[in-house]
Hints:
By secondary structure, the protein is of the alpha/beta class. It is built from 14 helices and eleven strands. The strands form two sheets. Strands 1-2-4-5-6-7-8-9 form an eight-stranded parallel β-barrel, surrounded by four helices. The chain has a two-stranded antiparallel sheet with strand order 10-11. Helix 3 (68-74) links the parallel strand 3 (59-60) and strand 4. Helix 2 (34-46) runs antiparallel to helix 11 and helix 11 runs antiparallel to helix 14.
Amino acid sequence: MNNSQQLQMRQNTINQLFAAPVRLLAPMEGLTDPLMRQILTQIASDLGRPYDWSVSEFIRITQHVLPAHVFYKYVPELHHDAKTASGTPIHVQILGSEAQLMAENAAYACELGAPAIDINFGCPAKTVNSHRGGSVLLDEPETMYQIISAVRQAVPAHIPVSAKIRLGYTDTSRMDDIRGAINDSGADWLTIHARTKTQGYKPPAYWDKIQSFNTLDIPVIANGEIWNFEHAQNCMTQAGTQHLMLGRGAVTRPDLVAQVDNHTENSTDSVENTATLLWQDLITHQIKFLEGEAKNDVVLVGRYKQWLGMLTKGYVEAQTVWEGIKREKNKAVIISALQASVRD
Length: 344
């Protein structure tokens, strides 16, 4: 296949991906790991509205081309055609500041089967930013341009390359420069978390500021502070895009992706939810999480408690379970408490 054919293949892929409004599961460090991706994408598929794709937690690129086992650790789906068990594609996200090194690692990820490469310019973590990774690079649009361009040139022409950003680092004063860097770099689409690094995750998200990026000749995906159907509708209206990436809201309410697209208007013109995942339906998935693969049970129980704590914002039943097991370390006892919550 010559370069022209590969370019056409990539364009066909992008056209197919964005033929309808896109719904993505966000990459969230320490949260949407392979086990959580497996659970959440399975729920979405079961509800009839699978995620179009998900993005891996970022893989930090620092000094050399990473060995295969590192990529497989973060994205074990690469062993299975880069898809979860429910068939949701997983794109590989990388983070770093050295353009050539990022390019070489991206190319290797593609050799291992990555269907697309996403570049992280949005992570607000202090440790990451202090090492010139993530959102701190929003103050260096030229570096952003160099990284995206180098990755675009290094990976096979048929593989899409995307970027994820925030509105800025300390403020939004560099938005024009950021938009220019994205425009000139060859990125195939852009995801925007509608807050600056300084604003972190504190409400509100400034969806309207995404509008200015719609002048780019690529698809734009909106992200940030989407917790329910109404938020999703307001975000799409204010951002001027139909494409959404769902983050913490999708962990708190695993049926959020289905709620966004499966509402109907009844005779009284009120919104009716047609895709509600009840607590009793979620129990099986929580037990599967607790029976999943992890370094050890201590890690697994800790990860589950993190999820359960978030579920308390979406399910009143989760609060009762949380109060009963928050100091519990025995996995079997926690599973029993979950089963009892349905009987009660």
